[in-house]
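batch job 7 of whatever, protein = LysR family transcriptional regulator
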Amino acid sequence: MNKFTERLPHLTLLLAFKTVAEQGSFTRAANLLHLSQSAVSQQVVKLEEVLGGALFVRSTRTVTLTKAGATLLSDIRGPFEQLVGAFEKCARQAAPPVLYIEAEPVMSAFWLTPRLKHFTRRFPALHIQQLLSTQRVEFPDEVELAIKWGTSDWPGFEAEYLMGLNYVPVCSPALAQAIHIPADLASQPLLHDRHYHDWESWLALYPQADLHVRTGHVVTDSNVLAQLAIEGHGVALCAIELCERAVRNGELVIPFPHLSMRHKLAYYLLTQRQKGVSEMTRQFIEWIKGEAQGH
């Protein structure tokens, strides 16, 4: 062991020095390092003893670097950043992979989540975190992909068509017993998702129903809309693709499956422009596109 190696200071001393130098204060450095001010001061003193010279000019109000201190700070900044980067890289490799997805609640609950097991079987160690948001796009830093309902125009994002939806009247089995022809819908309460537009568009396609669509219950959550229909509160206009499980379980009935309306809006895959996606996200995009084929 050579003389320099014997004098090599402990990393904690260098970290204390670097933090004080960058903060210009022992107090602020102590707060950042979760130590007492005296502990940080002692670490800096030990470093000065090892190096054999003062690193700071101390006064009652300020702390400034000596020439030797400024040189040391300049020399260790790069290696410190490399060291932190190495630790972060190692931690990422050791941690299980995480896929962050932003999706709308109804799409996640009724279409995406029931299918996710087909993707996670391919990657048993994968953890999936879903950020659920309605209408607006959150897109925090960790998210690489969002699945959103709307038109193809998403300013600031690359938008790729995923799937459209076919809307039909749905209701509880008990309510369906009184519905035999489209005109029978006029005697039942209607359920609306946010506004009357969807029922108005459907009636324009099938005027024989002769409905007064600006009546009935209005909710601002598609999950609640489906639940209202299940509980028998009225007839809702829902996407076949999103209510298939409730229909299969006998909770909902589609009285007129042939009277469907292709909605003018659709689901799109959004990624950030000029920013690539990870290999895991790329594979997820290919998988979900395959699942959506035919819709």
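notes: The mean pLDDT is 90.
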